[in-house]
Amino acid sequence: MKKSPWWTIGWRNMGRSRRRTYITAAALAGGYFSIVVLVGLSRGIVAEMIANGTDLIAGQLQVHAPDYLPDKSIYETFGGVDRASIDSLLTIVESDPDISAAAPRVYAGGLIGSDNFTVPGQLMGVDVDRESSVSRIVRVDEGRLPRPGTNEAVLGGEMARQLEVAIGDELVVVAPSVDGSMGNDLFTVVGIYNSGIVELDATTVIVSIEALQYLIFLDEGQIHEIAAVVLDPWDAEDAADRLNPLLQSSGHEAEAVPWTELRPELVEYANLVSASEFIIVIVVFGMAIFGVANTMLMATYERRREFALLLALGASPWGVIKSVLAEAIALGFISILAGVVFTAPFLIWWHVAPLDLSFASGGFSMSGSYVSPVLRVEYPWSAIVVASVSLFGTAVLAATYPAIRSARLPAADTLAGR
Amino acid sequence: MKFSWSKAAPLVIAATSIGSPLTAQETAAEIVDRIDQMWRGESSRAAMEMTVVTEHWTRTIEMTAVSLGSTHSLIRILAPRRDAGTATLKVDNDIWNYLPRVDRTIKIPSSMMGSSWMGSHMTNDDLVKESRIIEDYDIDVSFSGVRDGTDVWEFTLTPKEEAAVIWGSIVEEVRKDDLMPTWVRYFDERGDLVRTLTFDDYRTMGGRLIPAHMTMIPIDKPEESTSFRYNELEFGIGVEESFFSLRRLRSER
Asked: What is the pTM assigned to this prediction?
C-alpha cells in the first residue's frame, strides 16, 4: 500500500517554524513532566503513610487467634505449649514468597510504676532478634533492647518522662495474668525509643517475650500475634489469602489479617488520593490544550493560501485535515519523547534520593501514622501511560479545530487575497 | 441504710449491719439516712473469701479486711499462694497496692480507677466511691408489700442533678421484718441494667445479723460473677485512722 503523502507533509510542516514547534513541544513535555512527577509525589506520600502506619509496629500482615480482634483479650492466644510450636508457625508464615520477615508477640495491659509515679501501659513482649526486622519501634534512641528472658524493658520517651526514669532505673510492672492472679515483677529500664507518636510513646513498653509470658502466666508456646513484613504492602491481602489455608491445614487456630483490614482508614486515604489523580491530568492538559490550539491556529492561518492552493488543485478537504492532524500527532510524539527524556532521570533521582524537608518542617502524626518530613516519589506506572495518552489526545484535540477550519477554506477567495 | 453495695466487702458488711426494725413513721430517706449514719465511724475486721468466676478461670481469694467507716480500709490476700501477701490500702479516694513479690507499693493512677480490682467484677472505683446516699440520691419507695412470700420494700434511688455518681439509678429490695437487703440492681444512665447484687445466708456475726454471702453478676456477662462470703466478722475493733498507713500496708502480715 502506498504511504499517504499527508503524513509526510504533516511531519515536514513541523520544521517550517522550528522555534514554534520547540516551544509547543516543550509545553506538552512540561505537562507530561508535571503529571508524572505530581502523581509520583502523591503516591510517594501515600506509600510513606502506609509504610509509617504499618512498619512502625503493626506489620503489613498479622496472625492472631480467630477471636483476638477487636478486643485483644489476653486469653485469645494461639500456638502450643512449647517454643517449637511458635517456630513452626513462623516457618509457615515466612514460607510465603511475599513475606520477608515475621516475629511473634505477646501483649498485656498493666500498670507501670516508678518510685513516685504509676501509669497505665501496654506491655509488648517481643522476640528481640526477629522484631528488629519487622518493626521500627524497637529501634531505640538510647540504650539497647532487652535481652531474651531477662526482666529488662524499653520505654517510650514520653512514658520515661512521666515516670521520671532513665536507663538503669527500676520499674514495677503489674499485669493481670491469664489465671486471674496479678502478675507483678521488677524490670530494669535498658532503652528508650521515640516513635514520633506521643500516645504510643506514653503507653507501650517493650519487654522480652519470655519475660512477659512468665509475668502473665502464659506457656512459652502461647502468643497473641505474629507480625509479618510484606515488601509491597499491596501484596498483603494476597499473602493473607495464601496463608490462611496453610495455617488451617497445619492445625493451628489462627488467621492471617492484612493491614488493609487492620487499618482501613489508610486504604481509604490511598483510594482518595488515587481518585484525585485525574484532577491533576485534567488541570495540566486542560491548560496545555489551549496553548497548543492557539499555536496550531497560528500555524494553519499562516498557511491558509497553501491550503487553498491544495484545495484548488483538487485535494480533498479530508486530506487537508489529515495533514494538520498528522502534524499534531508528530508533535505529540516528539513531546512525549522530550517528556520522557526530561522526566525519567529526574524521577529516578528523586526516587533514589528522597527530598528531606526536615530543615523546614518537623514530622507529625496523622490518623495514627507518623508522617516524616521526607518527600519521596513512587514510580507512577499507570500515570505514565495515562499522561502519554492524554498528551497525544491533547495534541490531536487541539489540532482538530484548526484542521477543520483549514479544510473549509474558500479556495478561490483565499487565493485571491479576499 | 447505706446501699452502696458496690463498696469493698468490709464496707458492705458495715452497711448491712442494721440493728432495730423500722418504725412506721420513718420515710424511705430516713431509713436510708439512719443506716447511713449508723454505718459511719464504724470499724470492723473480717475474714472472707472472694470467688471470681470468669469465662476463662474461677478462683477463690481468701483475705482479711480491716475498715474504718467508708474512708479507710486495708485488705490483705492470704491465698492463693501466687497472690498471698498482696494488699490494698484505701484512704479516702486513693488506693495503693502492695506487691510482696517485688516488695513495692504502687498507687493506682486515676486513669485506672475504672479497671478491675484483683481480677474481680469490682472496679477500683467501687472501692473508693463513698458518696453519702441521701446527699447524692433521691429515695422513693417504689414497692411495698409481699413479694415471693416476704414482706419487702423496694427503694428506687435516683441521683440528684448535681451528684457526681456513675449510676443512672439503683433499685434495691429490703425485707421489712429485719431490714435485710435481698438484692440491689444497678442501672446506667440509659436505664439499662448493668449489674445485680444478691444477698443470702443471713446470719448473726459479730453480734449483728448480716447477709454472709453476696454475689455480683455483670449483666453483659451473666455467666460470670464475683461473690463474697464472710467467715469471721468483728465490729468495733478500735482502730484509728493512723492504722491505715503505707507502712502498715507493707508490713502487716
From this structure: 0.77
